[in-house]
Design a protein that fits this description.
Blueprint: E1 2-3, E2 6-7, E3 16-18, E4 23-27, E5 30-32, E6 35-36, E7 44-48, E8 55-59, E9 62-63, E10 71-75, E11 84-87, E12 90-91, E13 101-103, E14 167-170, H1 190-196, E15 202-206, E16 208-210, E17 222-223, E18 230-234, E19 249-251, E20 269-270, E21 279-280
């Protein structure tokens, strides 16, 4: 984590200035509160071609709240290519469009919702950096800056800290791997999400209608689990802000004919045997 560093005289790269035959990798790092006196690259500046070529790669990182501009790259002469490559990172203002800065896959420009110490906010108002990184980029990294497990929930978080509560995503409109790791790969059935959950996990449910069975068994029910809160009302997959709340997630017992009530589920939700559970819109 690089925080509250500054270049007080004219210059670039408040946290990192890369140059002169330097080839660096920044992985699962958080930049915040850094500033550059030269008004460029508050987080990272790369002087590509200055006294020799230099490159820096940024993976699974958060660059937010630095001034002025998060990234800057320049070069002298006719050396080809870009000095900075960024993928699977949250960059305030977005990755700049530049011949010297290359934007790869998975980058976002959304408030990371920091809590104390630049940790990520968990549910219900979820940081977009959770489960948004790329596991191969974090290969060999087993712990976060707190010494906790680096990958929780199947996909690495962006930034220096990993949220330690496993989050299970459910969205009836999802069309991915159906494994609950993020909105794209969410379980399409709430029953699948509940089956995968253990105490301490959190289930998030996208907008839509969810039934306890695809059959006509009236005894089918959503059986709640101890220590597994369920939050609904998320915008969900294929939207510009899938973590936005205020939408409607419906748990329906209308499993038979839509015009009859005599074939509905006896109990849509069952909480018997639970003592620490929450279900909220």
């Amino acid at each position: 984590m690089l925080e509250n560093n500054s270049v007080t005289v004219s210059g670039d790269g408040g946290a990192i200035l890369n140059g002169s035959y330097s080839y660096g990798n920044v992985v699962n790092s958080t930049f915040n509160g850094n500033s550059a006196g030269g008004s460029h690259g508050g987080a990272i500046a790369d002087d590509f071609g200055c006294s020799g070529t230099s490159f820096i790669n940024v993976h699974n990182s958060i660059l937010w709240g630095d001034s002025s501009n998060e990234l800057e790259a320049s070069f002298i002469g006719d050396s080809p290519g870009g000095g900075i490559f960024v993928d699977y990172s949250d960059v305030q203002g977005g990755v700049p469009s530049s011949d010297n800065i290359n934007s790869g896959t998975g980058n976002i420009n959304q408030d990371p919702l920091f809590t104390s110490g630049l940790h990520l906010q968990s549910a219900p108002d979820l940081s977009p950096a959770i489960n948004a990184g790329n596991n191969p980029d974090a290969a060999g990294i087993t712990t976060d800056l707190d010494g906790n497990a680096r990958v929780v929930g199947g996909v690495v978080d962006m930034g220096a800290y990993e949220v330690q509560s496993k989050i299970i995503f459910v969205d009836s409109a999802s069309h991915g791997l159906n494994n609950g790791t993020n909105w794209t790969n969410a379980y399409t059935s709430l029953q699948s999400g509940l089956a995968a959950a253990t105490s301490g996990n959190i289930i998030l449910v996208g907008q839509g209608t969810y039934k306890p069975t695809t059959t006509t068994s009236r005894t089918a029910t959503f059986q709640l689990k101890n220590g597994v809160p369920i939050y609904g009302g998320y915008n969900g997959v294929d939207t510009s802000d899938p973590d936005q709340r205020g939408f409607v997630s419906i748990l329906s017992g209308n499993i038979g004919s839509t015009s009859l009530t005599s074939d509905n589920s006896y109990h849509v939700v069952t909480g018997s045997g639970t003592n620490t559970v929450r279900f909220t819109k």
